[in-house]
Amino acid sequence: xxxxxxSTLERWISIKIRRINTQETFHYxxxxxxxxxxxxxxxxxxxxxxxKLTLFTGASLLLNCLLLYLSHFKNKxxxxxxxFIIYIFAAxxxxxxxxxxxxxPTLFVLQAFIPLFLFFIEIKRKSLLIIAFSTNLLALFxxxxxxxQTIIPYKSTFDRFxxxxxxxxxxxxxxxxxxxxxxxxxxxxxxxxxxxxxxxxGFLENMSHEVRTPMNAIIGFSELLKNCEDDAQTKEFYFKIxxxxxDSLLKLMNNIITxxxxxxxxxxxxxxxxxxxxxIVRLFNSFSNQLPPNKNIVLSYEINCNENLEVFxxxxxxxxxxxxxxxxxxxxxxxxxxxxxxxxxxxNKNNIKIFVRDTGPGITSEKQKMIFKKFNTISFKLNNKxxxxxxxxxxxxxxxxxxxxxxxxxxxxxxxxxxxxxxPKKIKAKSKPSKKISCLN
Length: 441
Prior knowledge:
Catalytic activity: ATP + protein L-histidine = ADP + protein N-phospho-L-histidine
Organism: Plebeiibacterium marinum
Strand content: 5-15%
Helix content: 55-70%
Pfam families: HATPase_c (PF02518), HisKA (PF00512)
Structural class: alpha+beta
Distance between the termini: 67 Å
Radius of gyration: 32 Å
Protein name: histidine kinase
Number of helices: 12
Largest sheet: 6 strands, mixed
InterPro entries: HATPase_C_sf, HATPase_dom, His_kinase_dom, HisK_dim/P_dom, HisK_dim/P_sf, Sensor_HK_Regulatory, Sig_transdc_His_kin-like_C
Strand order of the largest sheet: 6-7-5-4-2-8
Shape: elongated
């Protein structure tokens, strides 16, 4: 039976270590204290120990349940944490006096539990707390040495041995999963750090390539233009190449700046009433003039909704998010169609759905799980410098989140990809839905 139990424990830890936080850890500690209180109350009744001790463990059970309720359901984590620290001091002194002093399990509980609590929970001035515990423990030893009559002893040696054994086994069953969790979490964090450094190094290397390529083109064709004695058509061709590479470089710089601002929390939405149709048309007009001449792509948009549909959002952030999605679709589509627009909004009264669809190579289901992560290895490969720096999709994802929206991906290898953006309306439409609008390049 122990093998399935260990396997279950490993699966649970693998799921939790990436989600665990300080408050959740505190909840687990409170839960363990509840288990210990239940077990201690029952064992005290069976062993016939002091009624004061039994009342205390029962009160501890109620207190820990209350603290868990306040922290988990009432969001009073900091209050519950401070109350728990006070409870630990009270429990240390009471258990020492009523449960055999240094001959009982109190010292063992202190040595096993307090370091775990201090390690797991973020507490200011931990050094002062450790000094306070040490001073309190010294005072208890001194009291027991000079005034042994203040300590309530065990009724028999058997009761003492049994109590120590039961408490030892209980802490063994609790601490082994906790220590195993520490080990797994440490390994996971170490591996994440190694992978993060490797991927960021690849990102910087690839970004260097992304910057050098348009810069070299701009400098090279500027020199050709400077010394050019060719006809006007050739000069116009040089101008076009310089402009295209300048636009590419500007877009790259904007993405890097936006990613940095998002990481630092410097971007906040400035929401106002926004007409969706002009935004879609503006995006179409912008990208229809930027289609690569070496690609056989048809760019189109459609609006299956009210032409005067308004939403309360940040138009600039939404424009940038959609622009990145459309640019990404054009970049990876060699031939076929790139279409974007508004889906049938009458199906959902609370949200508006905007789609960006292409007939590119598609994305596998495994890679879809990583597609919106910064510096992901899907958007660029360390040995393939032409795939971009892997920022545009993560930026779109973060910007849509800033607008209280969502973005999902539907893709099939060999058929294409669709990004579906959903943002809240919050404003009623002014007129009846119009017919479908479709504009082709």
